[in-house]
Amino acid sequence: MGKAAAVVWDESFLGYDLGSDHPLNPVRLDLTIRLATALGVLDGVDLVTPEPATDAEIERVHEPSYLSAVQAAPMAGWDVGHGLGTADNPVFARMHEASALVVGGSLAAARKIASGEADRAVNIAGGLHHAMPDHAAGFCVYNDCAVAISWLLDNGFDRIAYIDVDVHHGDGVQTAFYDDPRVLTVSVHQSPLSLWPGTGRAAELGGKGAEGASVNLALPPGTGDQAWLRAFDATVPALLKVFRPQVLVTQCGVDTHREDPLADLALTVDGHRAIYYRLRELAEETANGRWLALGGGGYELLRVVPRSWTHLLATVLDRDVDPNTPLPADWVAHASTIAPNWPLPSSMTDSADTEFLPWGGQVDTPVDLAILETRRALYPLHGLDPEDPRD
């Protein structure tokens, strides 16, 4: 890494609170920052304090009528439309302000990269990738990922690659740029046949004039570290090398973990760490080192998210944490007060083997079928041979 990386954080991010019984509990952010701090990952790092995004900035991807609905929702009650007031997207106090701050955090990270102050920047509170132009969806009110990409397109960049490794399809970002050939959206997710939102098939290629700019790799339930990494390696790097992005934007949801209560993939914290290392390498190899990393899903709040995203922060900062590092006693004591009967891990690893056999063209497993389906759909549009594993 060249310039110092930027970390965007402020405790006010915890105001994005959909309720104590909601899966997207902000305690996961608090525990992540506490763990990263306890392990020294943030030592000497001047945290970037975000400012709320303006209405005009949010309206880069959202309709003004939707912003008005979000702003009015806490006073209007539950029947406000636009996907608000549902079990997934309940209305909460200061909803617009909290959501605008998340967008502002991702914009602050984008500005650090565009200004040249940093080659890398991270906002773990971001990654709300399901929000649509006129409605909330999947716990997401405003789509900070899409707003940040839109801003980058107007501030010095005309080729941006977005890689989404959340277990759910990155549908909101795909929708925002489906017709824009300047943005390559890549989503690696659990098959839409078995998981909400039911989109993200290989045949979703991009709109007219942007054919091939939308990439979807849909993996079968039960896919673990080695198979996930094999599939990613067999599809994504070659597309990035052809596309030649100027900046890599990644949504780093960790609901792919085997303990996540809302999905059915079987990755580990070690698999997540391997993904972050690969994203860092790809940013260096294909995007001149520019990498904007965002958070995302992840609903095992104590055992998984804090460890995985501490590894993300460490990876962005080039302060890689030894997976065998014990969890600090003070952090464990604090986490235990939140869920006294919930067993906590003892270290920063799940003791999983992430070494994988590269794809060689065979079709022996359901994951191999997914690899070939995506390659056959996308590779010819980029001048690559879907049957040749060297591509």
UniProtKB/TrEMBL annotation:
Gene3D superfamilies per UniProt: Histone deacetylase domain
All copies of domain Histone deacetylase, residue ranges: 22-315
Keyword field contains ATP-binding: no
Biochemical pathway: Ketone degradation; acetoin degradation
GO molecular function terms listed in the Swiss-Prot or TrEMBL record: histone deacetylase activity
InterPro entries, per database record: AcuC, HDACs, His_deacetylse_dom, His_deacetylse_dom_sf, Ureohydrolase_dom_sf
Any single biological process term in GO: acetoin catabolic process
Alphabetically ordered keywords of this record: Acetoin catabolism
Entry annotated with the keyword Phosphoprotein: no
Entry's transmembrane regions: none
Family indicated by similarity: Belongs to the histone deacetylase family.
Protein's UniProt name: Acetoin utilization protein AcuC
